[in-house]
Amino acid sequence: MGSIDPILLIASLMVASTPILLAAIGELVVEKAGVLNLGVEGMMIVGAIAGFAMAVESGSPLMGFLGAAVAGAALSLIFAFLTQVLLSNQVATGLALTLFGIGFSALIGQGYTGVRPPPTPKMDFGPLSDIPVIGPMLLRHDPMVYVSILIIAAVWAFLKFTRAGLVLRAVGESHDAAHALGYKVVRLRVLAIAFGGACAGLGGAYLSLVRVPQWTEGMTAGAGWIALAIVVFASWRPWRVLAGAYLFGGVTVLQLNLQAAGVAIPVQYLSMAPYLITILVLVLISADRRRAAQNAPASLGRVFHASS
Prior knowledge:
Radius of gyration: 20 Å
CATH topology: ABC transporter involved in vitamin B12 uptake, BtuC
Distance between the termini: 61 Å
Number of helices: 13
Helix content: over 70%
Order of helices and strands: HHHHHHHHHHHHH
């Protein structure tokens, strides 16, 4: 245990949490609009290969992240068309989207196995980066770490202080009432779904361009499902999404450090720890059903009929 550097641990935690944080905050906006999209894993893996391919072909990580956001949003619009226009079941469509994304990414990624992407540069804070403890812990990361935190702040401010955010929440609480007041429920939900897809795509690209960085089939390894769980854990509140993602990222990094330190615990148990803790937290939260019901958008997962 003495070989684990707490400063490096926290710095690594921020990097490990970023993909899940991006996917979770996008899904939070989608669910605030009353839509349940279980295709987060599929959008993340498509974003991972799209961003990787774009970065490799263009030589620019920025183009890679932009391509990933576009790919994730495009895939999410398929879900939006099926669920909001054709009124298909949201749960079944989301699961199908995940299966499609996993298969499609494996097909596209065949030519990129073993290829190295262009490096993503770190943010330059000048002398601030040399401040003891704070510098190496918080000020030597790539731009996407800070962008993810800014997205959290922007979503919080949007939902809390803007009229558009209030309308989005109203659609999630009662789409029929929002429709009666003249709001375009389907349009708002499609925009929210596209935003969620773009964020999931960014999260996937962060995995393949920064966290790993390489393309490996199935590299999301359940990150999309964890992002869905974190939205529930956070009670649909942006800053709690940040806390939940950092908690999961922290446990993940800690178990890797414990493995490296040779702690006398079977590797299999350490590898299970992040997922077991996530399940435990969800069980504890779900135990208070009244509180969970109060926080969840009332129209979550319900089909909206424009003629109603």
